[in-house]
Design a protein that fits this description.
With about 325 residues, this protein is of the alpha/beta class. The protein is built from eleven helices and eight strands. It has two domains: about 1-195, Nitrogenase molybdenum iron protein domain (Rossmann fold, 3-Layer(aba) Sandwich), CATH 3.40.50.1980; about 200-320, Rossmann fold (3-Layer(aba) Sandwich), CATH 3.40.50. The strands form three sheets. A four-stranded parallel beta sheet has the order 2-1-3-4, with helices on both faces. The longest helix is centred in the N-terminal third of the chain and has 29 residues, at about 1-30.
Length: about 325
């Protein structure tokens, strides 16, 4: 897959150079800071702060799985034209290094996971023989898949994104700094309201039922911050790309029965077939949530705030 990107990357760099003349004219006539965000969720938070003062391109299409994204030529072009790229970080964007190389220029990248307390993958069952040895001498930055990249699933992490985004935009576009600061302050207070609302909602779930079983392990930060237990996942890992073994599925079914788990939560960016089978086998309800992507503007979760409210409502309804 990587080789394929590298191959068309060459052609794209030539194409981008040819287009850059008219592209630059558009920049000066509009006068807007050109910003790229990787996921729809990073994109929404950047949009809340940048407002109409920035020209924002979001790389991942609505409904796509961030673990399985393959950049297209238009993504290389967007990076080439950008003055700054905001990324989720924590190893989520596995496509990024190659994409930045193909863009053929140095572009400032802001890693929104920097400074957050990242969770490490702690599920021993996930460590197969081939990984046991290399896990011993893991160095920071080399084994991204050992970190939980789903930092956005807790608004307490997203609250930390806000000043990073505001300060970057204000530095690159000082003329609009006041606007960015005002937007950031307003959005921060919405996130504070969301956080308090989640605490109230979770309090409605009896303590023994505060257990999460999901399609892959993406609720680590949410569980840690709001007092739930992430009991297990259909795909026992941080990426949707892994395949569970028959033993892992059987163990999860046992755990679901042992803990009387009321529901299995399945996301909008994966094939739900396995989760469906598990729900049928255990007689447990299958509940739909939004995971790796927001929805289009006319959907249930077009913004991060709507996404979190939708998911928390679905979880509380299923578990209480
Ligand atoms: Zn994920």
């Amino acid at each position: 897959m990587l080789r394929k990107i590298g191959y068309f990357g060459l052609a794209v760099v030539v194409m981008v150079s040819a287009l850059s003349g008219c592209r630059r004219q558009a920049t000066t006539s509009e006068g807007k800071l050109k910003v790229v965000a990787t996921t729809t969720i990073v994109g929404d938070v950047v949009r809340q702060i940048g407002g109409d003062a920035i020209e924002l391109t979001v790389l991942l299409p609505v409904g796509s799985d961030p673990h399985a994204f393959s950049p297209a030529p238009r993504d290389v072009a967007a990076i080439s034209a950008a003055e700054v790229v905001f990324i989720n970080g924590a190893g989520l964007e596995e496509f990024l290094t190659e994409l930045l190389e193909n863009a053929g220029k140095q572009v400032e990248t802001v890693d929104l996971s920097e400074g957050l307390t990242l969770l490490e993958f702690a599920d021993a069952a996930h460590e197969d023989e081939s990984h046991e040895g290399e896990h011993e001498d893991t160095h920071e930055g080399e084994h991204h898949h050992d970190m939980d990249p789903h930092v956005w699933i807790s608004p307490r992490n997203v609250q930390r994104w806000v000043p990073a985004i505001e300060q970057t935009l204000s530095r690159l576009d000082a003329a609009n700094a006041k606007k960015y600061q005002a937007n950031a302050a307003a959005y921060q207070s919405e996130l504070t309201t969301l956080d308090a609302w989640i605490v109230e909602q979770i309090a409605q779930i009896p303590e023994t039922r505060r257990v999460l079983v999901t399609d892959h392990q993406l609720f680590g930060y949410f569980a840690a911050h709001y007092g739930l237990e992430q009991l297990g996942a259909v795909v026992p890992g941080y990426s949707t790309l892994a395949q569970p073994s028959a033993q892992e599925l059987a163990a999860l079914e046992d755990a679901i029965r042992a803990y009387n788990v009321p529901a299995i939560l399945v996301g909008n960016t994966v094939n739900p077939a396995l989760a469906q089978r598990l729900a049928e086998d255990t007689g447990v309800q299958l509940v739909f949530i939004y995971t790796g992507s927001l929805t289009a503007a006319d959907g249930d979760a077009p913004t991060y705030l709507a996404y979190m409210r939708y998911n928390v409502n679905a979880i509380v309804t299923a578990l209480k």
